[in-house]
């Protein structure tokens, strides 16, 4: 299979890239060092012809942990661009360039568990969750859309946000293995990934 993945330089995206390549798949990496995530028009022009699976993984949390009134406007705009607008535009490009396929949108456990001082991150991830449901209604006859909600994954996100209890964090490799299973199982469409002890 040919799989396009955003945000492959670290965390879940890096694990996805490595796991899919190990399984013999071809990976198209879509990252900031190649594409301008802050310019929507650049994203619309990415060639996704004959890509079997698009995984919208890239995301960031600049400004999380601050009250909304103290956030920088630049951080708000950047989160909206990367966490919500980028996946929507890439999905649009993908469905315009292909007749069928799979789109996996990686949201966050925060959509089920709102936390203080996470207004923009929460809003963008909930937006991506709702987008996945809405676009499924439009195009479910030709495309398969899957939302994956990782909770407490062992990445820099939790380290940078000073998570006190680092026990029971799921490793990115485990997330990658689950997503590979999702691709191979057409009956999975809405998945939360978490340690059962939490």
In terms of DSSP E residues, the strand content is 15-25%
Our Rg estimate from Cα atoms comes to: 16 Å
Report the uncertain regions.
none
Helix content: 40-55%
Strands side by side in the biggest sheet: 2-1-3-4-5-6
Overall mean pLDDT: 89
Shape call? globular
The count of helical stretches stands at 6
What's the β-strand tally?
6
Derived structural class: alpha/beta
What profile does the largest beta sheet have?
A: 6 strands, parallel
**What is the string of SSEs from the N terminus onward?**
EHEHEHEHEHHE
C-alpha termini separation: 34 Å
Give a summary of the structure in a few sentences:
The chain has 198 residues and is an alpha/beta fold. It has helices spanning 11-22, 40-44, 73-97, 119-139, 156-160, 172-184; strands spanning 2-6, 26-30, 53-56, 101-106, 143-150, 190-193.
Tags for this model:
about 40% helix; six-stranded parallel β-sheet; 6 strands; alpha/beta
Task: Summarize the structure in words.
- With 198 residues, the protein is an alpha/beta fold.
- Helices cover 41% and strands 16% of the residues.
- It contains six helices and six strands.
- It has helices at residues 11-22, 40-44, 73-97, 119-139, 156-160, 172-184; strands at 2-6, 26-30, 53-56, 101-106, 143-150, 190-193.
- The protein has a six-stranded parallel β-sheet with strand order 2-1-3-4-5-6, sandwiched between helices.
- Helix 1 (11-22) packs across helix 6 (172-184) and helix 3 runs parallel beside helix 4 (119-139).
- It starts with a strand and ends in a 5-residue tail after the last strand.
- The model has no long low-confidence stretch (mean pLDDT 89).
